[in-house]
Amino acid sequence: MDRARHIGRIFRRGPGRGSGSGRGLARRLGGALAAALLAAGGLAGLDAGTPAAAAGAANLARNPGFESGLSYWACSGDSGTVVPSPARSGTGALKATPAGADNARCAQTVSVLPNSSYTLSAWVRGAYVYLGASGTGTTDVSTWTPSAADWQQLATSFTTGPSTTSVTVHTHGWYGQAAYYADDVSLSGPGGGDPGEPVPGAPEGLKAGTATATSVGLSWNPVQGATGYHVYQDGTRTQSVAGASATVTGLTPATSYRFRVTAVNGAGESPGSAEVTVTTAAGNGDGPAVPKHAVTGYWQNFDNGATVQRISDVQSQYDIIAVAFADATPTPGAVTFALDPALKYSEAQFKADIAAKRAAGKAVVVSVGGERGTVTVNDAASAENFANSLYTLMQTYGFDGVDIDLENGLNPTYMTQALRSLSAKAGSKLVITMAPQTIDMQSTSAGYFKTALNIKDILTVVNMQYYNSGSMNGCDGKVYSQGSVDFLTALACIQLEGGLAPSQVGLGLPASTRGAGSGYVAPSVVNNALDCLAKGTGCGSFKPAKTYPGIRGAMTWSTNWDASAGNAWSNGVGPHVHGLP
């Protein structure tokens, strides 16, 4: 996509925004934000005056030195592990690694008494390491260090509320940063619960019932002395129940999940049960189905002189709306998304508008890349980061899938791995679109073409950009210049005869002369090319050897430029696409 057309966006966002908000935030944390937190007392743990745990005081934290692995601790997204080195004392220390939208939070719940004072401390190593307590019933506390090259103690204190009987103590890192380490966690103060009451044992016999597409029932053997149970899904606690069974809902079809449970009482929380793995049934999901013939339009998350739109403003002729663009983060392969402040568009309204479009039968995907996109997926780790971060965006905003618009090349092996991993998470309704440049689809040996063929079973459509390209070879070996029916049909023929299904081929054109540097054609030319490919009519000098009535349709950059031109493109091309055989 022609990202050069939004240079104003870069000046508005300031340094680092285009290469991922995490990187810019990390730089700023060391300066202005750190100063602000210091002023507000947010760095209390770095203050020499902060009280440490009193010598000899009882430590209410269980497995505080991680000598028993992760017993009593739960780390988000399986981000935590116990390593023998570097350990501050004993035989192990916690190592937790942030990834994508996960800040590697590791926590345990501890019994306390109401209206009582407590001191929390831990030794940490790494950049941007946090220690805190939540559920205090008064003011939850958190302290952090921006950099600890060697073991450094963090400490803070709090007072419980009048009805507080348990608090959750936790450590976490920061998005896009390297792994952090923690050891020798201490919570000192009066212990909660019956002094003679033991912590319950780990639940046994965990099993899963028959899973539907979106839910599964779990059951386990009751534990003596337990007053309740916590259910953990993929390492994160999702619910608490009183009895020895639970129903987990809101799952994605055809997706594997891991579950374990713990038992709790006034004395604390047990170690976790053995895990069970459950794969949900395949289902239709709740996303819209892309029609047989579809129109795709890119929606600009920036103001570059085109009409500024909300998602609700996008013309109804568009069946697939590609939100441009997701941004890279410092974590290889991972992406993030944030609304441009220049749009004055709240996140809540954005999500509501996406939901309304989906309810109207439209698909909304997030586009990765653009001309200035710097997302790189070139190994197994970055492939998984790519899939995980995109799935998080889908869950956060309601996107139906992803558009791949990487104009600086891609690795077909690992992009294939990434998209298949995303498909496994998101289920059968996942929408995957691509917007390669013309040069990327000249040969089946090209990386983009290879990727498209590798994921042919889950690919929705390839909307190649028939603009900003100059002359290119057609499938008959002749050279064609952009801006003509022949250019569209002879180049589409390469994809149609190179292994893609007709339903996976669309024609990508600018909505107006202002939408791209070159290659604009009138809507009538787009329609003639579609007729030539679908019905054998309206052709120029090139006429395909056969027709492709299942051809998917057309795409444009962008809905905003279309709106600037009075929606001439969508009003001219949309009805024609929807009327194809």
UniProtKB/TrEMBL annotation:
Compositional bias annotation for Basic residues: 1-15
Keywords: Carbohydrate metabolism, Glycosidase, Hydrolase, Polysaccharide degradation
Keyword Hydrolase: yes
Limits of the GH18 domain: 293-581
Region called Disordered, residue ranges: 1-23
One Pfam assignment: fn3
Keyword DNA-binding: no
Domain Fibronectin type-III: 202-283
EC id: 3.2.1.14
The organism's place on the tree of life at top rank: Bacteria
Any one GO biological process: polysaccharide catabolic process
Molecular functions per Gene Ontology: chitin binding; endochitinase activity
Record-stated family: Belongs to the glycosyl hydrolase 18 family. Chitinase class II subfamily.
The protein's name: chitinase
